[in-house]
Each structure stands twice: as structure tokens, then as C-alpha cells.
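Task 17 of the worksheet. Students: predict the tertiary structure of the chain below and write it out as C-alpha cells. Keep your answer in the requested format; marks are given for formatting as well as content.
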Amino acid sequence: MSAVLDVRFFDGHSSRPAAACLHVDGDALVVAPAPGAAFASLSVPLARLRWPERTRHGGRLLQLPQGASVQALDVAAWDAWVAQLGRGESLVVRAQQNWRGVALALALLLAATAALYQWGLPWVARGVTAAVPAGVDATIGAEVLESVDKSLLAPSALVPEEQERIRRTFERMIQAAHPNGPPAWKLEFRRARDKRLGPNALALPGGTIILTDELVQLMPGDPDAVLGVLGHEFGHVRLRHAMRQLVQASAIGFAVSAAFGDYGTLIGSAPVLLATLGYSRDAEREADVESVRLMRAAGISPRVMIGFFEAVERWRAGQKRAGLDDDVIGLAFSSHPATVERIAFFREAAAN
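Model answer:
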């Protein structure tokens, strides 16, 4: 028989404690009344007990069957008594009592959260996007187009012949790169009503690509650069990047909608979300790869994009001098600065 420990006993029926003595007899824990207490002794197999973890503060509470429990207020005596029984502590309990263990757990949690955001969420977004019917893309794209037409865009001032020339050239470019059939797309021309939008292009869910007059006029002597930008936007269309960004921004909502087939609420909020979202670096890189693919199929050197980026940066510098913010639509082409990495990518593509 083990040593005896003084505790308080709760029978599970009353909140009034009774003085009790604990000891272990063989494979059972015995709860016996202390002198002056009136309750029947209780014997519980050790295997059925849920032993409390050691903590720095508070008493120890041992849960017993049928709602009964024993409480030890003298935690030092309890811990010593448990140690005499040969009960060791788990690694988790020992770590909880050590600041190094807590710091390690926190670091692992932060690392896991960062990994989930960096790799897990995009992976989930791809899967959910694949489950979203293409018709939802088209509906969202129409909603977004209507929204930007009301606030940021105006009808194009380009002559119809110029629009048709760009459209037909781009169509031949796509057909050359995708002879087996490209995804659905449509090119729309608009003039920037808001000066902050300026020379820009935007790919909407469902395949609509918006090209502003200002972008066409940015490099009047180099129409191939316009085709390179359109190729980039076509990459966003082909890979459904806008929809993936929407899914990532509201992953839970899209997962529920995909499960039940009801996208009404998400479609209504899409214009606002797309106005604030931006493409990830991976999405921009994938779209740049598609742009190079289309330009090569059309016999255009990717080097034209270097000159285009330089022209855009000059425009952005002018915007800053005028005190204008050019980041009005997160997914718009010119809202993403021409990073050294992207320029190096097109320079390398031109050299190969």
C-alpha cells in the first residue's frame, strides 16, 4: 500500500466537499473518509483514472467515475505523492513548465501558420477553383466589368479600325500558341476615366481582358509591346488567377459555396474584392511565362517588354510627382511595379 495523502472528496452529487484520504492498494486507488467524514470508501482501478497535469498554479483535481472527484490543495504534497507512485510526466507537460519549450512551440506554430499561408492556402485555392463552374467566372467577370465601367472606365476613343487590328493580331497570336483551342476570351477597349488608372490592362474572371487607350498610346511606335501585355493578361485568364485570388481571399466562403452550389453572396462581393486584391508573385511569374510563349509563337522578341516596363515606370514617376496613386485596381497590370526579377526574366527569355 502506498503513502496516504489528505484530500477533499466531491461525490458528484453535492458541491460540499468531504475530508478524505488517498492511497493506492495494488491496482486501485482507494478514497477513504477522513476522521469525522461520512461517506463510503471508494475503490477505482488506476486504469480508469484521468490524472491531472502538473501546473505552476492552482490545485490538483483528479476526476473519478460518475462525476466524483478529489481535490488536493497542497500541490507540493500531491506532486511528491504522485512521484512516489512512479508516475512520470509526458514530454508535453515537461515542455509546458519550461520557457524554452513554450518558445519552441510558439516558433513551430508561427512557422506552420506561415507555411499554410504561403503554400497551403494557394494549394487549397487551386483545388477549390477547379470545383467552381466556369459559368461562375463569367458571371463574376460581368459584375466586375459593370462596376469598373461605372467608376473607372469610359468608352474607348480608339477608332474601330485600330481596335479591330489589335484584336485580330492578338487572336492570331493566341491561335499560334494554342492550336488545339484556347480558353474563352474577349478583348474590350476602354478609356481611363480616372487618371490614376492610366495605361493599363486587366484580366477579369470569365476571360474578359480590358485594354485602356492609354496603354495603346504609351508606346505608339511599338505595337508588339501591347501584344506582350495582352499575352500576360491572357495568362491570367488561362490559369484563372483572378478566381484563385478570390478563393484565397474568402477560402471558407468559396469552399461552402462549392459544396452547396450557391455562389450568390460571393458573386455580389467579387467586384469589391477584386479591386483590392493583387496577384501573387507566382501568379505574375506564370502570366509572364504565358506572355513569352505567345510572343515567341508570333515571332515577337520578349525584349519589347523591357522597353514597355521602362515606359510604365516613367509614367508611374509622373503620377507620383502629381500626387496621384496608381494602385486603384489591385489586379491591374500597371499596379504591379516592374521588379528587377521580372525585367531579368524577359531579358533572359529574349536571349534564349
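Marker's comment: The domain at 5-88 is CATH 2.30.29.30 (PH-domain like). The longest strand covers residues 18-25.
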